Amino acid sequence: MKDFIENCTEMTSKKIKIGIMGGTFDPIHYGHLVAAEAARVKFDLKDVIFVPSGNPPHKKGQKVLDKTHRYLMTLLATATNPYFQVSRNEVDREGYTYTIDTIRDFDIEYNGTAEFYFITGADALSEVLTWKNIEKLFEMCQFVAATRPGYKYEELFKEIEYLTVNYNGRIHFVEVPSLAISSTDIRERVRMDLPIKYLLSEAVENYIYKNNLYK
Ligand code: NAP
């Protein structure tokens, strides 16, 4: 009987698992899409919501493409995957956009019924201790660090251990070979009139040329 009651409690309190894919996506490429799909499968996520960053605090003074273009390219790239959605949450927010505010908004939207996995690049996560309200963020979501080929795993493992022991961080990683593709490299290639075919979706490629981006 005790087991039965415990099982019922577990069943009713079980939260749905949602991936939140955070990034600048300047532009979004196949590495990002493969990373999101790998995380979805590995952690059995119901959906992955892509959240193009709005006005990220760590990019002060850096040239980042207009957020509407980045949002539209993310929509185009994800359109054919039924598990992928795109949110305007950060694009529509005024001022600097912090991940803690994004996760709080999703928590309200899902009425506390979802467990969140914040997926992003391992390099971005190495700066995580500088993020706003990081302790609360570790409480509210798990992290998935997507690594590029050649990533120095020793450093990542040390970092994960440190954040787990000192901040109760719940951090996982996924290896993504196609993250050999990088947004910086794509922008550079467009600037130099080099082909970008097969690095990103055709729809995004056409969007870049049509709008004369990265020139
Ligand atoms: P970034 O510093 O531009 O990127 C760092 C590295 O991670 C780059 O090599 C980048 O490759 C890769 N990367 C970024 N997003 C990725 C993703 N979703 N999947 C796989 N690789 C990814 O980082 P960012 O894109 O601006 O920020 C990442 C996320 O962290 C965003 O959601 C941002 O809002 C959040 N963040 C929050 C705070 C805060 O709350 N205070 C501070 C910093 C970042 P590509 O260039 O090829 O994408």
If you had to describe this structure to a student in words, what would you say it looks like?
The structure is a single chain. This protein is α/β, with parallel strands linked by helices. It has nine helices and six strands, in the order αβαβαβαβααβαβαα. A six-stranded parallel β-sheet has the order 3-2-1-4-5-6, with helices on both faces. α4 packs parallel to α6. It starts with a helix and ends in a 5-residue tail after the last helix. Bound molecules: NADP nicotinamide-adenine-dinucleotide phosphate.
Averaged pLDDT, please? Answer: 93
Whole-number total of structural domains: 1
Distance, first to last CA: 68 Å
Q: Could you describe the largest sheet, including whether it forms a barrel?
A: 6 strands, parallel
Strand order of the largest sheet: 3-2-1-4-5-6
The proportion of residues forming helix, as a percent range, comes to: 40-55%
Structure ligands: NADP nicotinamide-adenine-dinucleotide phosphate
Produce the secondary structure layout.
Layout: H1 2-13, E1 16-23, H2 30-42, E2 47-52, H3 67-78, E3 84-86, H4 99-109, E4 114-121, H5 122-125, H6 134-140, E5 141-147, H7 153-167, E6 171-175, H8 183-191, H9 202-210
Parallel strand pairs: 1-2, 1-4, 2-3, 4-5, 5-6
Helix pairs in contact: 3-9, 4-6
Bound molecules: NADP nicotinamide-adenine-dinucleotide phosphate.
NADP nicotinamide-adenine-dinucleotide phosphate binds at residues 21-24, 32, 35, 53, 56-58, 98-99, 119-121, 123-124, 131-132, 146, 179, 182-184.
